[in-house]
Amino acid sequence: MPTNQPLPSSVAGLPTLEAVDLGCRRGNRILFKGVSLAVSTGQATWLRGRNGRGKTSLLRLAAGLAVPESGQVLWGGTPVRRSDTFHSALLYIGHANALKDDLSVTESLQFLARMHQRDSDPVALHAALDQVGMGSRRDAMVRTLSQGQRRRAALARLALDHRASIWILDEPYDALDADGVECINALLHAHLSRGGSTLLTSHQAPGASAPDMAEFDLDPFG
Amino acid sequence: MGSAFSAVYVRDLRLALRRRVEALLPLVFFVVAISLFPLGVGPEPQTLRQIAAGVVWVSALLASMLSVTSLYAGDHADGSLEQMMLSGQPGLVIASAKAAAHWTVTGAPLVLAAPLIGLLLDMSTAGLLTLVVSLLLGTPILSLLGGMGAALTLGLRSAGVLLILLILPLSIPALIFGAGAVGAVDSGLATSGHFSLLGALLILTALTAPLATSFALRIALE
Q1: Which of A134, B15, B16, B203 is the most exposed place for a label (fewest CB within 10 A)?
Q2: What residues of B are in the A interface, CB distance below 8 Å?
């Protein structure tokens, strides 16, 4: 497990994700405006806010899935939607798990790994599933899994991916039991110690085993 | 790029294999719709021979439309589409792979079943051969156009109706030249003109539809 190896680009200083004066609109409603936020190397940021404040929208903007109403999201100084390096540096896990009901857990993850040009070797996939406690269910069809198991399977991508330097996670602790939360926190620790950074949302507190997180409250920007 | 194409293509075929009954629905519709015509129109071989090419082509068109509505809906709902678009792979490649998989699952069985169906309608050998070639050139056009329509109507409530309104007019040239080729061979005329036009339509659609699809997918995700 190359958990303690620094990321390749850390020699030159890792690029950071930065939101500058970001505004988001949904229909006629302004969700937030004037949000400036930087996620620096080795740091986790916990995005907080009431329901409907636009936490998921902010994460989607940060991942480059949507275009902001105003302001911009920069990766190492380049807008994320135009950056060549952002795609390989990013690991985004949204609210949806992106697993296919009619594929097995391993097949689903293998597809995602191949698309993202990550290690899609079955041995690596199985090791990643073991790390999130899903080793015994690796050949099960996704449709037979419980919500918590699906979440674990989706989050196995965190264990697989040592190339991504920025993780953007939407409610990663959702549906997980105490043991699942521990697994994810262990992966977060390893990622941060490699010099990676994380932007996440969570309704519940990430727990005592979680790494130190900078909190960012979205409520004042509505 | 090639690996992304094969990843999407192989995954879609595997998903179709896991849901065989659903995947076979267009073929069943095609066969049932055509075999109803002799019952409705009357069993005179002369009449059937005259309408055969048109009936087969219209049924193929409707069978393709039947299955294309769900082309991107499933991937959109479970978050796979988001992940594919974030992977940094060109949207063009993803759209082409999805259309190719749709053709393999839906279009190719129609082409294979066409000669048998043609015999049912008492078509001549030359007519059957022309029908197969025209469907071989024409069904990929339907898959490509259908993929574009599915992407444009993604996430809309009345997607099915809109898709048919959008795509049917665009597929009419393929219908005219496809069915026209069989009419030409039956009246002893050369079919090369019809085939050239169908081929040109296929090339034009293959060059433009995936590009339009990938733009539509980006918009649908915002």
Answers
A1: B203
A2: 3-4, 7-8, 11, 14-15, 18-19, 74, 77-80, 82-89, 221-222
